[in-house]
């Protein structure tokens, strides 16, 4: 509204140059430029999405701790695990405007990482080859199924969200630069209204373009879309690492087996039969030399 008001004043003052209108238009354009610089630096819609995800993840962690307390007395390992998860989550989603914020315009789009990175897998022994059905339901068929699911997630879901995230980030960068630049040009043009028709044309045109750019950027919540893609890509990265960590577990008794398969299916919004069907399709596509035409997740 500030930009449109300033553009209207600049257009009116071109016909009958009035100092009050010219100064008001210049001041309004200048104020809009300052506001846009702050807004584009903070990205309010992206901050909202960040904190929404942080709240959801903290609640999830809280329920996990409550479940542990309800089932048994916590061990030192439980306390350490909860602390690591809390610190990793706090690092991934720091409180905004109170110190360090998440970079809104990174050079490279990367998935969100809210879980603690562990070096345990580096020191693990080579996982045992499963040839029979284990006590916990883990089998060779289940292991192959999980490997196929990882393959689909990497080639379809993760790749697609990384592509969309990079596209949204590029668009957001262009819009964030264009908005203040156009209002700055409009402010300069309005200051010279009365010294030629070109000044009013520049002020009104730049103001109209700035209004369009900012409506698309903030009305379309482009920052929120970037954060949504970042979080979705992080979800698939987390799922990949969880499956790989389970497959690489050297102690067969620690592999959750059928319960783990059900957990993966639920996270992907599938039933067990649908998950197994997806793995079969992926295996068949390798044999035929074709690409699978289905995404792993039915939730996003």
Automatic annotation (TrEMBL):
Native organism is Populus tomentosa (Chinese white poplar)
Q: What is the lineage of its organism?
A: Eukaryota, Viridiplantae, Streptophyta, Embryophyta, Tracheophyta
Its protein name is F-box protein
Q: Where is this region: Disordered?
A: 119-138
Q: Which PANTHER family match?
A: F-BOX PROTEIN WITH A DOMAIN PROTEIN (PTHR33358)
- InterPro entries recorded for this chain? Chloroplast_duf
């Amino acid at each position: 509204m500030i930009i449109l008001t300033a553009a209207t004043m600049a257009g009116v003052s071109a016909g009958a140059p009035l100092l009050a209108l010219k100064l008001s238009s210049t001041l309004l354009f200048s104020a809009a430029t300052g506001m846009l610089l702050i807004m584009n630096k903070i990205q309010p819609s992206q901050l909202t999405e960040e904190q929404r995800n942080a709240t959801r993840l903290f609640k999830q962690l809280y329920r996990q701790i409550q479940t542990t307390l309800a089932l048994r007395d916590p061990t030192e390992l439980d306390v350490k695990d909860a602390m690591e998860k809390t610190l990793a989550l706090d690092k991934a989603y720091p409180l905004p405007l109170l110190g360090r914020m998440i970079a809104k315009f990174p050079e490279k789009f990367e998935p969100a990482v809210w879980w603690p990175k562990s070096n345990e897998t580096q020191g693990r022994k080579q996982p045992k080859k499963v040839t029979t059905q284990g006590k916990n339901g883990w089998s060779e068929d289940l292991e192959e199924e999980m490997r196929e699911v990882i393959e689909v997630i990497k080639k379809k879901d993760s790749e697609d969200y990384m592509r969309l995230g990079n596209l949204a980030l590029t668009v957001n960068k262009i819009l964030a630069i264009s908005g203040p630049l156009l209002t700055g040009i409009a402010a300069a043009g309005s200051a010279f209204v009365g010294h030629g028709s070109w000044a009013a044309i520049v002020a009104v045109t730049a103001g109209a373009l700035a209004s369009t750019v900012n409506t698309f950027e903030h009305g379309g919540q482009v920052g929120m879309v970037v954060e949504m893609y970042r979080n979705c890509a992080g979800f698939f990265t987390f799922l990949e690492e969880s499956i790989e960590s389970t497959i690489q577990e050297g102690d067969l008794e620690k592999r959750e087996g059928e319960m783990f398969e059900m957990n993966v299916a639920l996270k992907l919004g599938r039933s067990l039969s649908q998950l197994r069907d997806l793995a079969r399709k992926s295996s068949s596509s390798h044999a035929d030399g074709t690409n699978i035409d289905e995404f792993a997740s039915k939730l996003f």
